[in-house]
Each structure stands twice: as C-alpha cells, then as structure tokens.
Amino acid sequence: MARSKEKTPKKPKKPGRLKQMWQVFQMTRRYDSNIVWILVLAFLIPVLISLALALLIPGSNVFTMVLWIVAGVLAGILAMLIILGRRAEKAAYSQIEGQPGAVGAVLRSSLKRGWVGSEMPVAVNGKTQDAVYRAVGRGGVVLISEGPKTRTTRMLEEEKRKIVRIGGNVGVTVISVGPDDDAVPLHKLARRLTRIKPTLTKAEVLAVNNRLNSMGTKLPIPKGVDPMKARPQRG
C-alpha cells in the first residue's frame, strides 16, 4: 500500500540583514520625515572629510588617496547605521509614549548591561493607570514614575519608604516619565539610568534586587506593551 506522505509546513524564512534594515528604515521614515536627509549627511560628511585630507596631506599618491576615500565611505556607512538605530528606537517608542506599560517595555528591552528591571510595575493606580517601576543597578535603586507628577508623588514616596526599610543605606533615585516639562522622554530613559553614578558592586546589585523582590506585590498588574507591535494612537 502506498503511504500518503504528509507534507510538513515549511518554516517561514527570516528576512535577511539587508531586508531587516530596509524595514527599519521604512518604519522610521513614517514617523521621522527628516531621516533621509539626516542619513545622507551622515554618509557624505565623513566621505568629504576623508577626500579633503587625501588632497591636503602632502606627499599623497593615488594609493593613499584611495585608502582615505575607502575609510571615509566605511565611516559614513557606520555613521548611518548608528543614527538609523537611534532614530528607529525613538520612532518605535514614540508610538507607545503616554500609554500604560510604556516604561515597562523600555525596562524589558532596552536596559543596559549591569541593570535589572521588570516590565511589571511595583505600584499602580487602578483608576488612572499611573504606575511606578523599579530598576536596580550599579547606581543603586531607581524608581520610575509613569504619569503626571501630581498623581504619582504619593506612590513614589510609599515605595521609597519600603526600599529604605528593606534596602538600608542603598541610594534611591527618582525619575519621572510623563507629560511634565522636566520629565525624561521615554526613548532617553535607558541612557538616563547609565548616567547615575555607580555606588554598588555587582554582588550588591544582586543582593539588593533579591531583597526587594522578596517584598512582592499585592496587585494583579498588566505587563508592559511591546513598542515593535504597538499601533500608533489615532488622533
């Protein structure tokens, strides 16, 4: 008897590196109309500088001029990739800025090495959806409020008292992400954490984080949103 062979569905191929970069560029261009000119300038400036050096340096021959131009082209491509990455991150987070769970998305996907954070807030206001998140790193404990300061100050003070009671002399930094003029923009949050002066060792970071996690939370709090899957808000 002939056996019917079941065809196993093929896994969809992952897009190549160039296709991924093109998709990132297309997404960024929808939210950043100046990205094309910025990338063009980022490429041309290093090329023009290298060309000028090749022409001005005495004793240059054809070979050295070619090396200078190649170096300028490579530097231009590198500058384009760096700028595209930063502008793409900003565009991605601009889609979820102001939404509940936006800070949690940053803590889940963009924390730098040496920092530990959770997409789950440690305190939340069920009526207003304002929340407080916590991150622990070499700079100590950081409490990040999501929402207007007038509504999150009380939650921050309560969480700070808990940390002082359990964490002892660990430094506590407060950062606000919200509509206030002096608030930190969502796309700059991860870099803001790295600017805090280190006060703890790696072992102390782990110990403090374990102690704070032992407090737990009594509220069923939703997870953060994914900036790469979020839909832009309608006007």
Automatic annotation (TrEMBL):
The keyword Transmembrane applies. The keyword Membrane applies. Pfam families: DUF4191 (PF13829). InterPro entries: DUF4191. Keywords: Membrane, Transmembrane, Transmembrane helix. The chain crosses the membrane at residues 35-57, 63-84. It comes from the Bacteria. This is DUF4191 domain-containing protein.
